[in-house]
Design brief:
By secondary structure, the protein is of the alpha/beta class. It has three domains: 1-162, no CATH class; 166-247, Collagenase (Catalytic Domain) (3-Layer(aba) Sandwich), CATH 3.40.390; 250-278, no CATH class. It has helices at 3-7, 21-30, 32-35, 39-55, 67-78, 134-142, 150-161, 176-194, 208-221, 223-229, 231-241, 243-246, and strands spanning 57-60, 94-98, 119-121, 129-133. It has a four-stranded mixed β-sheet with strand order 1-2-4-3. Helix 2 (21-30) crosses helix 5 and helix 10 packs across helix 11. The protein is globular, with a radius of gyration of 19 Å. Residues 104-115 and 243-257 have low confidence and may be disordered.
Length: 278
């Protein structure tokens, strides 16, 4: 029995087949993104949340996963990829929910270098796992004004990782012509953060991947403020996460596709003769 197995709660059974009125009220109260959707879009959001929750292991570590925890995790997963109906988090198998912060050795309540870790995408022996703090998960939705949401932050890391690298450049979702300008813009904005000349969370200056995740939190929490304060950042994030981009012939299903296989866009052509070339 491994370290984590000792602390695991009983595995969560299948979530549900359909949304209840109570869950809709909960999302409407807690999730600003959900409130902004049309009724038809809300229905699609709910369907995709259920699909995610019924195919994903969510495990409590020294805690029991509550219904509200699952709903917020499901919402966090769908928000950044809502424009992409065929997206699958192929690089995630399990979400581990801790009651509070943790360190890299998963010692609950302890700190590394005085920094409380609230969320993490696993690597090495933790590959395919995401670790979240329940406290941070709920705080991300309780305060809609602070431009922070730990769970969305971590799911954006998974989106970034879909091309094989967590580098702040989600190439599978970007127009090619935007990649170099985005890199230059990231570096410029990181300098502004370090010079204390920015309202972007200072953690965004850690590296390009953290900048991407931090400004995505800002984008989904306070989009109008981001557009006002950082119009160039807003424009590229809108392009990355928008419905307009999802409607183009791009790889919407994020499992790796070999060049001779059918293109996932549904054209009937081989991948090498279709979306592989842009």
């Amino acid at each position: 029995m491994g370290f984590l197995d000792f602390f695991r709660s009983k595995r969560r059974p299948k979530f549900a087949d359909s949304f209840t009125p109570n869950w809709r009220r909960f999302l409407a109260d807690k999730v600003q993104f959900y409130r902004s959707l049309t009724e038809e879009e809300k229905n699609q959001f709910e369907i995709r949340m259920l699909q995610f929750l019924n195919t994903m292991e969510i495990t409590g570590i020294q805690t029991t996963v509550q219904e509200e925890d699952s709903l917020l995790i499901g919402a966090s997963a769908i928000i950044p990829i809502f424009a992409f109906p065929k997206w699958e988090y192929f690089n995630l198998k399990e979400v581990l929910l801790y009651p509070a912060h943790f360190d890299f050795e998963h010692n609950i309540g302890q700190r590394v270098e005085d920094v409380a870790i609230l969320g993490m995408v696993g690597y090495g022996y933790m590959e395919g796992k995401m670790v979240l703090s329940r406290k941070a998960l709920h705080l991300g939705f309780d305060n809609e004004e602070d431009k922070r949401n730990t769970a969305i932050h971590e799911f954006v890391h998974l989106i970034d990782k879909a091309d094989g690298r967590i580098d702040g450049i989600p190439e599978r979702l970007m127009h090619r012509e935007n990649v170099i300008p985005w890199i230059h813009l990231i570096d410029k904005k990181m300098e502004e953060i370090l010079d204390n000349d920015s309202d972007i969370n200072r953690y965004g200056a850690t590296n390009r991947s953290e900048f991407m995740a931090v400004v995505a939190e800002y984008f989904f929490e306070r989009p109008k403020l981001l557009e006002e304060n950082h119009p160039e950042v807003y424009a590229i994030l809108e392009d990355i996460f928008s419905h307009e981009l999802a409607d183009r012939k791009l790889i919407e299903k994020m499992k790796p596709v070999r060049h001779f296989e059918p293109c996932p866009c549904g054209s009937g052509k081989k991948f090498r003769d279709c979306c592989m070339n842009g």
